[in-house]
Amino acid sequence: MKVINVHERELPTSPARVGALLDSLSSPQDALWPAHSWPPMRFDRPLSVGARGGHGPVGYIVEAYAPGESIRFRFTAPKGFDGCHWFDVRATGPDGCVLRHTIEMTAHGRALLSWPLAIRFLHDALLEDALATAQASLGLPPLVRKWSAWVKVLRWLVAGGKSSAQVTPAISVHAG
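Below the sequence we write its predicted structure tokens.
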């Protein structure tokens, strides 16, 4: 099954400021990944081509990295995810840009069920939280998309029956 999944947010700020958020991924100062609500993104070394890691059960290797512009990851786990996902920053003018996340993969084996029944919903919620975190890190009011009932049920199941509420990221200004 071919999967193309895109999440994006228009941001009224320079591509350089948004690129700095991208460059902070997996660092102690990560201003993009919503680690306040989701498993953190971790790598075996600083963000660079060849770094291996992921978040939760999703593994990947950094395949390409243009600082301040884009980062591309190739899936290494779970089984059945054959493809890539990436973030990129696209200028829309001198004081505007789009931050986009794209998955392009082929799902096979167990992923033929796990992607459409569970992982897609969790992924969509995580990415919307990441975009809200980006807005808050830029000092903008975050557009928080509420988790669906299904996402709440899936998170409860994954957490072994423990409840976790959605967190709205606090507005701060990330230097960049």
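Residues 138 and 173 are 5 Å apart (CA to CA).
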